[in-house]
Amino acid sequence: MYQSPRRLCSALLQRDASGLRRLPTPGLRRQSPPPAAAPRPASPRLLAAASAASGAARSCSRTVCSMGHGTSRLYSALAKTLNSSTASQHPEYLVSPDPEHLEPIDPKELLEECRAVLHTRPPRFQRDFVDLRTDHPSSHPPIRVMQWNILAQALGEGKDNFVQCPVEALKWEERKCLILEEILAYQPDILCLQEVDHYFDTFQPLLSRLGYQGTFFPKPWSPCLDVEHNNGPDGCALFFLQNRFKLVNSANIRLTAMTLKTNQVAIAQTLECKESSRQFCIAVTHLKARTGWERFRSAQGCDLLQNLQNITQGAKIPLIVCGDFNAEPTEEVYKHFASSSLNLNSAYKLLSADGQSEPPYTTWKIRTSGECRHTLDYIWYSKHALSVRSALDLLTEEQIGPNRLPSFNYPSDHLSLVCDFSFNEEPDGLL
Ligand SMILES: NC(=O)C1=CN([C@@H]2O[C@H](COP(=O)(O)OP(=O)(O)OC[C@H]3O[C@@H](n4cnc5c(N)ncnc54)[C@H](OP(=O)(O)O)[C@@H]3O)[C@@H](O)[C@H]2O)C=CC1
Ligand SMILES: [Mg+2]
């Protein structure tokens, strides 16, 4: 499984030369640089350490959340949820340990390890950032936000029915490296994830050592729990770079629909930029899936908007909302967000020629029921207070290939969305 140093080095050079833009990310720059000499052979030290940490995390979480099978997991997930009421402060066990107490990881070293694991796979696809700057100047570094439904491992293997995806492409040991590679390639300052069912054993231990502070909020009745050999419930996770932002407040929100509690959740956090002292709110959600549930999604969206109205003090605090809304732009929930008094715009519309159209797809898969190509994922932002400086282009149909997603090339059925934001120096008036 290991690559020779020469092969590893040339692979790295090829991929870097292929034009991935790497904006300065202080949190990742903070790590000590790799040796200038030829890289040493990658050993799975960091990935193995994360697995070891998973044991500790699991045994630690067992006291509140058994990671065993079936019913016990269901009850433990319920126990977690019962402790967290709507818009409550998150319980202690869902907050990452202070990363200051963990040995930092050099992101280049972790990337090398991932690439060593993936050496039999095709190289990652080239995606370019599109420059969207307008005349809003900014004296501060941009805030890079990544939105991504990473595909829960239990759902991918046990529920989703991706009939054209080889089962080997879904193996967690390699798929997790593809996910980490994507995150490390774009080095977001803030990472908003859905369908996370490997928080405690993978993302929390690794990302905290890369300088991120993480929060996880599982779905109360995660469908993952229905899958044999599951790894616990899936949910939303939010990570931010600790050396760029200070956490001002955090709310785990169990969404309601027509006053009834639902199985869908959101996390909303107010952060303060350490460079500029400006505050903003970042939220992540994953709304109810499937056709026939449009009104339910719409009600969940209204509930989320109401929560965000309160948290942003009626749009006074700039807002970014990332999510898998499970809704095309024609749906009511999309219209609620587009016309909200929070004055939101959808960032990926800016990639279209007229700035008014969403991309043709953010998810593309083949199930037993046929091909599913939809635009469901969005990054909403306060248009009076924030500007999108650039956005990562989507994969082309040719890159996605005839068997669609997920695949040996790409680990999820949803594409990641990545935007660079800056504060408007003089916020435009509301509307
Ligand atoms: N027996 C048990 O122990 C439990 C069972 N469940 C099951 O979970 C479900 C309810 O959970 P809920 O949160 O409302 O689920 P959702 O309807 O929101 O869907 C859950 C996941 O399924 C994916 N999905 C969407 N469409 C399809 C499809 N056509 N085929 C397969 N997967 C799809 C979604 O992914 P995406 O967003 O990417 O489209 C989503 O992440 C019920 O089906 C229930 O039976 C739940 C808990 C426990
Ligand atoms: Mg899914």
What does this structure look like?
- The protein has one domain (105-421): Endonuclease/exonuclease/phosphatase (Deoxyribonuclease I, Chain A, 4-Layer Sandwich).
- The protein is 28% helix and 24% strand.
- It has helices at residues 5-17, 26-29, 45-62, 70-82, 107-117, 153-158, 172-186, 199-209, 294-311, 332-338, 397-400; strands at residues 129-131, 143-149, 190-196, 212-218, 235-241, 245-257, 260-273, 279-286, 319-324, 344-346, 363-367, 370-374, 377-382, 386-392, 417-423.
- Strand 6 (245-257) and strand 7 (260-273) form a beta hairpin.
- The longest helix is centred in the first third of the chain and has 18 residues, at 45-62.
- The radius of gyration is 20 Å and the shape is globular.
- 49% of the residues are buried.
- The chain binds NADPH dihydro-nicotinamide-adenine-dinucleotide phosphate and magnesium ion.
- Magnesium ion is lined by residues 149, 151, 155, 195.
Write the layout of secondary structure elements.
Elements: H1 5-17, H2 26-29, H3 45-62, H4 70-82, H5 107-117, E1 129-131, E2 143-149, H6 153-158, H7 172-186, E3 190-196, H8 199-209, E4 212-218, E5 235-241, E6 245-257, E7 260-273, E8 279-286, H9 294-311, E9 319-324, H10 332-338, E10 344-346, E11 363-367, E12 370-374, E13 377-382, E14 386-392, H11 397-400, E15 417-423
Parallel strand pairs: 2-3, 8-9
Antiparallel strand pairs: 1-14, 2-15, 3-5, 4-5, 6-7, 7-8, 9-13, 10-13, 11-12, 14-15
Helix pairs in contact: 3-8, 5-7, 9-10
Bound molecules: NADPH dihydro-nicotinamide-adenine-dinucleotide phosphate and magnesium ion.
